[in-house]
Amino acid sequence: MSKVRVGVAGYGVIGQRLADGVARQEDMELVGIVDVAPTLAIRALAEKGMPYRLFCAAPENMPKFEEAGIPVSGTMEDILSQVDVMLDATSAGIGRKNKELYVKHGVKAIFQGGEKNDVAEVFFHGYANYEKGVGKDYLKLTSCNTTGLIRAVDCLDRAFGVERVVVTIIRRSADPGDTHRGVVDLALVEPVPNHQAVDLMHIMPHVKATGVLVHVPTTHGHIITVLATPKREITKEEALAEFRKHPRIRVVRIADGFNSNAAMFRYARDLGNPRGDMYEIAVFEETIGFSGKDILFAINIPQEAVVIPETMDGIRACMKMQTVREEALALTNKYLGLKPR
Amino acid sequence: MSKVRVGVAGYGVIGQRLADGVARQEDMELVGIVDVAPTLAIRALAEKGMPYRLFCAAPENMPKFEEAGIPVSGTMEDILSQVDVMLDATSAGIGRKNKELYVKHGVKAIFQGGEKNDVAEVFFHGYANYEKGVGKDYLKLTSCNTTGLIRAVDCLDRAFGVERVVVTIIRRSADPGDTHRGVVDLALVEPVPNHQAVDLMHIMPHVKATGVLVHVPTTHGHIITVLATPKREITKEEALAEFRKHPRIRVVRIADGFNSNAAMFRYARDLGNPRGDMYEIAVFEETIGFSGKDILFAINIPQEAVVIPETMDGIRACMKMQTVREEALALTNKYLGLKPR
Amino acid sequence: MSKVRVGVAGYGVIGQRLADGVARQEDMELVGIVDVAPTLAIRALAEKGMPYRLFCAAPENMPKFEEAGIPVSGTMEDILSQVDVMLDATSAGIGRKNKELYVKHGVKAIFQGGEKNDVAEVFFHGYANYEKGVGKDYLKLTSCNTTGLIRAVDCLDRAFGVERVVVTIIRRSADPGDTHRGVVDLALVEPVPNHQAVDLMHIMPHVKATGVLVHVPTTHGHIITVLATPKREITKEEALAEFRKHPRIRVVRIADGFNSNAAMFRYARDLGNPRGDMYEIAVFEETIGFSGKDILFAINIPQEAVVIPETMDGIRACMKMQTVREEALALTNKYLGLKPR
Amino acid sequence: MSKVRVGVAGYGVIGQRLADGVARQEDMELVGIVDVAPTLAIRALAEKGMPYRLFCAAPENMPKFEEAGIPVSGTMEDILSQVDVMLDATSAGIGRKNKELYVKHGVKAIFQGGEKNDVAEVFFHGYANYEKGVGKDYLKLTSCNTTGLIRAVDCLDRAFGVERVVVTIIRRSADPGDTHRGVVDLALVEPVPNHQAVDLMHIMPHVKATGVLVHVPTTHGHIITVLATPKREITKEEALAEFRKHPRIRVVRIADGFNSNAAMFRYARDLGNPRGDMYEIAVFEETIGFSGKDILFAINIPQEAVVIPETMDGIRACMKMQTVREEALALTNKYLGLKPR
Question: I need a surface site. Which of A108, B219, D63, D302 has the fewest CB within 10 A?
């Protein structure tokens, strides 16, 4: 079988990692990436010797690429004639405009969390609703927080059933290096319910969810506290066993030094992961507690990379590479090196 | 009736505000404050013209006070011969040592949250267990987070009954100006249950409580999300009505700009409150939500000043100034300018 | 002599403090303040009982003020008919539009640092070029950093002559409570020369100045390191003596605990200054050093309040209340409680 | 020629990177690393499959390693019998104690910046005083800030001569993930002169240096502004040409997006550098300015990795692998992939 041909539009924080993720899928071919200007990410690509072909979506900026000595392989239209599916990780609002081109070229597309849901047919999460994406033309991925949160809740739900969820999201307010957003000495509160809870109910309609979101001055990972009501009483050991079996969840111990979002980032750097990225969310073992039947725990969401595996799942679904959920997830996990730990 | 004579040991973040609080109680006399070195707080006192008498608990440091031109009115023993009750806001561990002197001089004392509970006879919260403190010699106040949290929970509990509470505490990791602690770009997670939940159950034994505490890089107020299970179904309006009636709780609206711990601090500064302090906790109105019968809401705890009113209550209790809770609270509130808003 | 009648347009971080500053000048009358919406600052004014009259510059927002229970005394045109001079502290760009109204009503105006220089006849600093402002209709104040920097440089210049200045400005990236700007875990570098050096040369054309500006994640004060070349060799004692004589400069010692922008803020709070404000810049005594003939030192700029005294000077100049610089400065200082310490 | 056998004591932030640096030197053999507990760094090493052998310097902790499933290859004494030189990157104070063992085993050693200078015979910087280290038994490296600063100053000095230097060091106050230090919303000023200036004069005695150090709440790189007086007038182009020729200096442009310490870190991550590390300091091109003859510029110091190349130089010097400076530097640079860009 020939490889599925994939392009990535928008080579920012998410786009770079999507490109790397596709490059690791042995049954996919990364045709190239698209951007509009010689950003730091593009300059780094050039310094690495252009492992990916670059297409320019803003012809008026071609002189800037030339001046920077960055080779360009063509235009947006050029790459669209060579791919089966585009991963659109452009800024919010651009994806919707790009979609017209995708439709024109008969190219499927997967949009990231910034776009509104109605840009796509299905609001998608690899683990929670893979089947809904099979064969569809346009998917929209859950955002980073929602992706990680659903991973944990879906994990418990498939094992024990989950009836409701109440979350507090302690959100990093900027990505590392961001200069266009961020707060200083501030914990900023948003109205209830937070969109992640609403999104969770969209993907998992049998769960009642609500929560509060608070922005804080950190860059390396969201922390979410989750209170979940399982269908039956469960023990800490049962919950831990399920989390540990999950290839995209790491159970870590505060006592071992995994005490924060930054410790998780440091560990990923020390592992030698490219960019210090981690695909897995972490469950802090010592934060698992109970209030009556309800289980409480805290997770870390590495916001830069967490959506990559589920987006790979999305390619598998929309391209019908695998129609059975478990087979698709297993392949994504295998190629990304994800396994129970 | 002659005024109750009060001293304050430790003129730091809390001690300064305790002294100001006592000075505003018309039925108390602030005899003086005690410290060991010419700190910034003491220097500010001197620049203001020594509105409070200063006693020095470290005779070896007297030359430093002299060099700084700060008048000293005597020693620790001197002040102990002139007071009925000491408010001990010294660093953790010092209070226990000071207690020997208090016992020796037959002086009552109220210790702040840093000390271990067994330093005192009663673990005290003005609103939640005033009666327990009446006539006792040694009280220990709840810490800042616990004081504010109990205020909110006790408020609901007296109106509707509360069966259980699950909290996420987003804790400021340093006070403004602190150089001896603090985290950078980090959200640090602690094991479940957090001590505030345990302390809440100590004070309100009929409530089951647990929760997670996360340290973040802010200085102006803890944010706590509270999920509380009332004894019966309540509405948002009912909850709001109770919060609004409480003289030590402000209901604020995110839509009006009260969106964060820092906004509350800014508002208190703009009000002209000394030091930009606020005694009241805030409930963010738009964070009130429901998950089944459970009520969810977020509060702001102004950590520097929040314990002052309950400490004033403590003086009233241990000195038997009022034996009826409502009368004591009403007087503290009146003198501190606290009223429903 | 009747009092000079002053209005303040824009009741934000600077406008609030300008209003307070005017209210303290015994030879001025604060006619009122102007704003467009019931911000937190306006709500605080209302909670304080409206010590200042409020005029509304956005009639369409009147219902919002009504809903919030905030009394409004009239429109922008109303206040313009009652004042001699307006202090315009509106957002950048608004002042220029307001100027048309000021011209129409024959009202003088002083614009804050955010406006472009050409909005006014004179780029003004109370200490450095008072004479230039005398009798003029429109002044523009130097920005917070420049105001504080010039204070220190002018102080040395008048005593010893200063030939050149090289600065590193470590700029706070947000005011306390700001949610619309700020950086997280970032020190952001700007091209040389920074605008403060350029502005200094505008005000003090005999000094050569350049420097670098770096934005950092703090809210309480800019720190500037200054390397200045005096006309003759000077000693640390000589420099200290001049700084100490200056009513708007505080010489502080790191050894005493004045070690940071935040320590200065904490001290101002502990002094009981409204809002924890400080009009004075601080020179950290132990940072005074020499490199050959050049003198090095670090200063703290309390960005929220530092421009207030020089703006009061500006009123005195443009209204010809005093034509002699020293007399004007002395009155501003007296009414603001500024004196050598 | 057989390879020089190297061990690393202390597998923390610096030790990890030293080990990686040695492993890249084709004429050296990394015998192993030493630590006392199963830290996150050691756990990451284990998860990577133990590419380096681990020796345990705290026999009492062996059960902890066992429990964590981390294989240990021996004790401190074991590794000392197998190496020619130890790189000691233990916490301050431990290196001095370790030195007794090094002496006992006849092993040379290079200490990192935390130790006091008198622990070694020579205070060493690869570029600035290579010759002094040749054949010596004990070297102490300059600290991260000083290493980077000297690189830049030495670069100009060799080309044009440098007479004096005045610096402002904007110091990151914690490494990523640190929980034991850090400041929140604070710029903390230290007395003049900063130790880096003093250290620079130690290494480059013909240069007069002073400066101020300010701690800020960032984790990714120190920013230093340097004012240097060259022996003759130079142009921006001349300076740039020298910086660009230097294999351990990157000239970057703010206009291209390299605007901060965090942008440099992000770029290093995007380059795929292990841990997102960068050995090179950066000169921000647009910060180069002049004040008379003096040249001003700002540099970024990636504090986690900057000392690695100079430590490799140190091995070459003390082991007399190369007696000629240029040959040693060229080999280190070649193996670390450092070249003019």
Answer: D63
